[in-house]
Structure formats: structure tokens, C-alpha cells
Amino acid sequence: MSRPPEMRDECALREAIVATARAMNAAGINRGTSGNVSARIDGGFLITPSAVPYDATAANDIVAMNEDGDARGRFAPSSEWRFHREIYRARPDFHAIVHTHSPFATTLACLDRGIPAFHYMVAIAGGTDIRCAPYATFGTQELAQLAVAALADRKACLLAHHGMIAADTTLDAALAVAIEVETLAEMYWRALQIGEPSLLSAEEMEIVLKKFAGYRKHRSC
Ligand SMILES: [Zn+2]
Q1: How many CB atoms neighbour CB 221 within 10 A?
Q2: What phi and psi values does residue 41 have, to the nearest 5 degrees?
Q3: How far is the CA of 111 from the centre of ligand 1 (A)?
Q4: 209 alpha carbon – ligand 1 mean position (Å)
Q5: Average pLDDT value over all residues in the chain
Q6: Structure confidence by residue, pLDDT tens digits, 2-11
Q7: pLDDT the model gives residue 33
Q8: Helix 81-90 and helix 141-150: axis angle, to 10°?
Q9: What spacing in Å lies between the alpha carbon of 101 and ligand 1's midpoint?
């Protein structure tokens, strides 16, 4: 008996979450079981389980959560499920979230530094900078609220002494943002070894942001 379309969709989404988590590690932006991946579903979201290696994670191991934080699955959800829930609540434009402890972004975050407009591609996160949220203990509601604030008008933020969050309309797009943010963090870190890079002006970044918006519009035609 074939499954109804919404179930087929959820199965496909579970497979895509596993593939995204594995791709995150293969791309070198995450190591081991740190980090997590989620995607929005009706009434809640699907999220990677806690402490299960991604290579050993099957689609059925992905945990379903509702908006109240009730979990359905044979494993516990990622300990960071609260910031996934709060981001989906606050940002109806997001349907997928990738969280990593990527080495270069986390290095900057350990210095409480975000990424300023040292390179025009910073605009990929939606604004003139990529903020670093202040530190709060992992898994807490406090961290969830700080992450939502740092993501205001942005698709990515760093988390002080912790890692990075990237979000977008699809899993592929969220992963692409995470990879780009890590690339920018590496370039910024390298530049800082030589000196303090000069920054692009707010006016120039506005031009870049408008060009990016036009590019996205063109691509969606
Ligand atoms: Zn984390």
C-alpha cells in the first residue's frame, strides 16, 4: 500500500536531513557528532538525534518534534532543539537550519567576533555583517533567544564560544550558506594574521545586497 503524499514527503525530508548532515562533515565544516540539522514540517520540525554519528544515522532515526517540544522517535532529539524551535517560530521564511562547530567560524566566535563587511560575500547572509550572539549554555532557552536576535534580517550568525547557525528555505540552501560563512570566516581569520582588513562601506554593501536580491529574483524565474 502506498503512503499518502505527506508521509512520502516526510520520508524524503528525513533522507535529505541525513544527507545534509553527512555532507556537512564531508565538506569539512563539522566534525564528529557535534552540530545538527533540521527541517520544518507542519506543526513542528524534524531534527537529527543526539549523539548518533551521522554515518550511522538512518532516516527513521530522525526525531519529529512539535511546537511544544514534544519529541517522537527512538532517540532523543539534538540537545540544541530549543534554538531550532525558536528560529522556526520567529522566522516563517526559514524551512531548514544547519548548526555546526565549523573550525574557522568557531575560532572567531571564541573571540566574541562576528564577521564584518571585509568581503562583499558577507551579503550572502542577508546584511552588512554576520553577527556573533553572546554566549549562553548550550541547549538553553537563553541561547535560543540570543540566536534569534543575532539572526534578525540574516540567514546566519555565530554563537560565542560555540559555533555557527545557517538557515534558509531548503536544506541545500542552508548548507550552502553554512559553507560560505565558514569560507568567509577562514578568509577573515587569514587576513587578521597579517593585519586588520579595511571594511567595505555601508553604501557599497547596499549595492551588493541589491544585486544579490536581483540575482535571486532572476534565478527563480
Ligand atoms: Zn552546538
Answers
A1: 4
A2: -130, 170
A3: 16
A4: 29
A5: 93
A6: 444 545 589 9
A7: 79
A8: 40
A9: 6
How far apart CA 61 and CA 113 sit, in angstroms, is 35
**Pairing of the two strands 156-159 and 163-168:** antiparallel
Exposure string over 125-143, b if 16+ CB within 10 A, otherwise e: bbbbbbbbbebbeeeeeeb
Let me know the angle formed at the C-alpha of 100 by 23 and 22, rounded to the nearest 5 degrees.
20
Of 6, 15, 67, 80, which is the active-site residue?
80
Q: What angle do CA 140, 80, 68 make, to 5 degrees?
A: 75
Dist. CA 214 → ligand 1 center (Å): 34
φ, ψ at 149 (rounded to 5°): -65, -40
pLDDT at 2: 47
Concerning whether 80 is annotated as a catalytic residue, the answer is yes
